[in-house]
């Protein structure tokens, strides 16, 4: 077994663990934080697994607020268990020196959480039941936090999922570094211009009192839903840094956008990108089966536009990062974010072309 780097070991041992760290290995493929899986042994046997993360403080400049939100979520989940269902919220592990569930070390911010055992994630949905469970997972999470006051949560990412903010950033970036150097950039620029009126649609509905602020996950991609390795049932949602007040439509739309594009975010932007209606129906069936009780008719009316908007918004975010020189999302080549933007904009086109069918699915499941 490879030796554990001393700095990682020292960070891990700063938390209250039930034994000695026997193994640390990279975990997942997130674009923001550095994540590691810890194995802990006691008395010669495995005493548990834990997730160690170094938070990206450029993305989360006030990481203590992120952790305070997670503490509020942990406390709420403890007092509002989902009776009769396996559902776990990752537990925060205290720093052995301060008692708080985080550590500042040499300018880096660390935290340790429990690992969801006997569960897996998927990068691409392969069948209808898997899709239903992804939707069900988001529905269970929303149901769990539906009576958690949004006022108890800090807005750790002001402007996050507020599409007009990204459009304004795009306009500002275009002033100094305009797109149009190649066909892909010109196509993206034209695509954005044609959909300017789409950007404020959910925020306008909120301002008009049609939609209301609630606690949200903020990043419900399919690989943030944990599925039981035995039954396939959704048992947890992870990557909770973006839990904050928002519109549940951000989550619903982002989940549909992520799950119904089987080509994935890293597809070739010029490939055939399609929004899969069968997956959409299964996801919404699973979601509404758990969340329907706290959604209004107006909430349901905005499901289609939420999927359209979230794919457009992510494309705009990728495009903005391309303009900025790839400073937010991790990239492997200079046009990586431009290609990602193309994928999301092609997906938006596919959603738009199937509006009537998506609305029919929602009407059938209401």
List the secondary-structure elements in sequence, H or E: HEEEHEEEHHHHEEEEHHHHHH
Q: What is the CATH-assigned architecture of the largest domain?
A: Alpha-Beta Complex
CATH superfamily of the largest domain: Aminoglycoside phosphotransferase (APH), C-terminal lobe
For the largest sheet, list the strands in their spatial order.
1-2-3-5-4
Determine the N-to-C terminus distance: 54 Å
What does the main sheet amount to? 5 strands, antiparallel
By DSSP, the count of extended strands is 10
| Total tally of structural domains | 2
**What is the radius of gyration computed over CA atoms, rounded to a whole number of angstroms?**
21 Å
Unreliable stretches (pLDDT < 50, length at least 5) are none
| Helicity, as a percent range | 40-55%
Shape: globular
Number of helices: 12
Protein structure class = alpha+beta
- Specify the CATH class of the largest domain: Alpha Beta
SS strand fraction: 5-15%
CATH topology descriptor of the largest domain: Aminoglycoside 3'-phosphotransferase, Chain: A, domain 2
Overall pLDDT: 93
What does the secondary structure layout of this molecule look like, with pairings?
Blueprint: H1 6-12, E1 20-26, E2 34-42, E3 45-55, H2 63-79, E4 103-105, E5 108-114, E6 119-120, H3 128-145, H4 163-176, H5 183-194, H6 201-207, E7 214-216, E8 225-228, E9 234-237, E10 244-246, H7 248-259, H8 277-291, H9 297-301, H10 303-324, H11 336-353, H12 355-365
Antiparallel strand pairs: 1-2, 2-3, 3-5, 4-5, 6-8, 7-10, 8-9
Helix pairs in contact: 3-7, 3-8, 4-10, 5-11, 7-10, 8-12, 10-11
């Amino acid at each position: 077994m490879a030796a554990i780097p001393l700095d990682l070991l020292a960070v891990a041992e700063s938390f209250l663990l039930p034994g000695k760290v026997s193994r640390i290995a990279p975990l997942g493929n997130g674009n923001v934080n550095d994540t590691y899986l810890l194995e802990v042994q006691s008395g010669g046997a495995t005493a548990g697994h834990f997730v160690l993360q170094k938070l990206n403080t450029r993305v989360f400049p006030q990481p203590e607020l992120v952790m305070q939100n997670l503490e509020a979520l942990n406390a709420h989940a403890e007092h509002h268990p989902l009776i009769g269902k396996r559902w776990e919220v990752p537990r925060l592990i205290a720093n052995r020196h301060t008692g708080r569930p985080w550590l500042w070390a040499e300018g880096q911010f660390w935290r340790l959480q429990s690992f969801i055992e006997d569960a897996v994630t998927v990068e691409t949905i392969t069948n209808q039941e898997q899709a239903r469970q992804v939707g069900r997972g988001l529905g269970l999470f929303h149901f769990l936090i539906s009576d958690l006051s949004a006022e108890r949560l800090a807005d750790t990412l002001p402007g996050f999922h507020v599409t007009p903010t990204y459009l304004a950033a795009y306009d500002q970036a275009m002033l100094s570094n305009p797109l149009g150097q190649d066909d892909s950039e010109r196509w993206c620029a034209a695509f954005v211009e044609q959909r300017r009126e789409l950007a404020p649609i959910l925020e306008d509905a909120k301002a008009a009192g049609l939609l209301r602020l609630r606690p949200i996950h903020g990043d419900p991609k399919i690989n943030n839903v944990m599925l039981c390795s035995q039954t396939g049932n959704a048992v947890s949602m992870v990557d909770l840094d973006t839990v904050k007040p928002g519109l549940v439509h951000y989550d619903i739309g982002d989940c549909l956008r992520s799950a119904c594009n089987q080509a994935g975010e890293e597809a070739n932007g010029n490939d055939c990108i399609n929004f899969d209606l069968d997956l959409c129906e299964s996801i919404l069936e699973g979601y509404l089966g758990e969340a329907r009780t706290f959604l209004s008719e107006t909430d349901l009316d905005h499901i289609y536009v939420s999927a359209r908007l979230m794919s457009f918004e992510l494309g705009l975010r990728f495009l903005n990062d391309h303009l900025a020189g790839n400073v937010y999302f991790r990239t492997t080549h200079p046009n990586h974010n431009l290609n990602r933007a193309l994928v999301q904009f092609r997906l938006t086109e596919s959603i738009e072309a199937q509006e009537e069918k998506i609305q029919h699915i929602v009407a059938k499941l209401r």
